[in-house]
Amino acid sequence: VSGVGNSSLPFRAHRLGLPTDAVRWSGASLPIGASAPFSVAFWFRCAVDDPDEDLVVLDVGDDVAGLSVTLGDALELGDDLAPGRRDDLLVRIGGAGSPTSGTVAVDLPGDTTARFFHVVLTRDGTGDLTVHLDGFDAGRVSAPGALWGPDGAWSLFAPTGKLGGAGGPGVLPFAATRAAGELAGFGAWDRALQRNEVENQYCRYIAFPYCSGRVNVAGTDARLWFSGSFVQADERLVVHIGGAAPSSIGFLLASQSQTRFPVASSDVCLGAPILRLSNQVLGFDVDGSIEALFDWSVTPAALDTVAKGAWNFQCWYRDGASSNFTNGTFVLFCN
Q1: Distance, CA of 256 to CA of 237 (rounded, Å)
Q2: Percent of the chain residues past pLDDT 90, beyond the cut
Q3: CA 126, 130, 136: angle at the middle one, nearest 5?
Q4: What is the pLDDT of residue 39?
Q5: Which residue in 17, 110, 154, 275 has a CA-CA distance of 20 to 30 Å to 254?
Q6: Tens digits of residue pLDDT in 38-53
């Protein structure tokens, strides 16, 4: 993909196989000076549970003037998964060989393979680079003399391109040896986005599981989670379910309260009143999994995340001759 604009990959997630240079942003005509303010934004998800090398998410420039985001290990920072795991973002402005470059490490919360993260990099007029993660100010580095060379080719998850700005030789790009991740909604601006712009566009949503389902005919308990945009107007919320009965069907349920009571061979984790989202039938594959765009156009009118931001979801699905439920997931929307 080549071009200039606020988003070269709008409203789509791209799964990248190996090897590939299919997703590539050519920044040769971007009107941004090497030391001028700028903003870069994108969604990404790592599909590798435990990478055995650092992986470049974004890279532009070379070892003198560059900008890079690398999935790696910042030693004791966070360590959500375990010590020594690559569960941090390492952000560098300026090339790896430049004495004026600056770096900052940002801890990625939770399981890096479970959901998309939204990253915004902004450089203001003083030269400070700020990293926003899901709308939060997650890190900052002062590098007033660093050059970032926006007139080079932008490598987004691509196995080609200069990687000197991403931490030096030997660092592998995201899709160099495997299908390592997914990318969506890349954008670049020739100014620093204001904090309220970042918060409004890439909100501080909350999404977490709060109860578990029961073991099904496949010997697993089904899991429900969400990714994408948690702003209803965007219509980019993605439903993920794994571990359900193979080749089964189901649909989501929603409620504003939580409880737990037995139904069939499992438990309902939602309190009354419960909304049935049965107009969108979910069909699982042979592994009992599905990834689907949430269809807001067929949801009950009562599911209004603008007026009421906090909702609980669960999925009912057929389980052999009976039925079952996934875990419950609480979501605080951003509207």
Answers
A1: 18
A2: 29
A3: 140
A4: 85
A5: 110
A6: 888 887 777 777 777 7
